[in-house]
Amino acid sequence: MRLVVMAYQDIGYVCLDELFSLGADIAAVVTHRDDPHEAIWFRSVAERARSAGVPVLEPASVNSPEVVDEIARLAPDMILSFYFREILSRDILALPSQGALNLHGSLLPRYRGRCPVNWVLVHGETETGVTLHHMELRPDTGDIVAQRAVPIADEDTALTLNRKLGAAARALLRETFPRLVAGTAPRIPQDHTRASYCGGRRPEDGRMVWSQTARQLYNLVRAVTHPYPGAFTWWREQQLFVWRAQAFDEAPVAAPGEVVAISSQGILVAAGTGALLLDQVQLAGTDEKPARELAARVGLVVGDQLGGHERC
Fold this sequence. Notes:
Blueprint: E1 2-7, H1 9-21, E2 25-30, H2 45-51, E3 56-57, H3 65-74, E4 78-82, H4 90-93, E5 100-104, E6 112-113, H5 116-122, E7 127-134, E8 144-151, H6 158-182, E9 197-198, H7 214-224, E10 231-235, E11 238-248, E12 259-263, E13 266-270, E14 275-283, E15 289-290, H8 291-298
Parallel strand pairs: 1-2, 1-4, 2-3, 4-5, 6-9
Antiparallel strand pairs: 5-7, 7-8, 10-11, 11-14, 12-13, 13-14, 14-15
Helix pairs in contact: 1-6, 5-7
């Protein structure tokens, strides 16, 4: 089976690496050029492909006529997409004789759309996974070939969960790819009545709303901590990022966002329900610090109010 692989991010790297281990016939790899304004924390799909002697395409748009013509010339039996960021056009999807498949980072039909690894954490889910599915014009709606579930630990962040999903994707491919080659892989229609959809996330979506519960705030922090833009609030009109925190169900009676204690463990802040202990923080334009150290350095004290000057 002759493949064209479209991949990016670390899960794209892992899946491409596994295909090489399986001896897949890969005619070309299509990927993205790294954005100089994005934190690149993941391994390079392009470098992995080149190390195996496979041609690499890095077009501005995979759907441009010249790229469609180039992929048509390669005559792929199948296109495999792993965390590729561009939606494929009808012209691209029509090229492979045996279809185009995508690996999505959730247990479809739940969490269709962008950023599922972040959204499952924001929503406090305890399980997610990866799904290999046939591609249609509408993203993430095609028949399912295989799924693998991944438990979400309470301490997981988007980065640790991404790594778990990468391991699950590798195992799924190892099990499923021989069946794709043999033509015996299943096709299971999605139950669209169970579908949920989440859109892309922006840095401003990390704003902390102190009227939420401590658990909700903690879930936001771990969903967007490094290497993502971070959860943030405001202190004396300065943006304060929260990179690590802990949630407590009980707290002293105080207004949401009020600093109720400062100790060697960090800064304890009242939430709508419970309290959030800020552990690792950063004022915009300064270095990241343990919360207790920042409080001592800048004069943050018990009774101060966080979140009173939101600008987003």
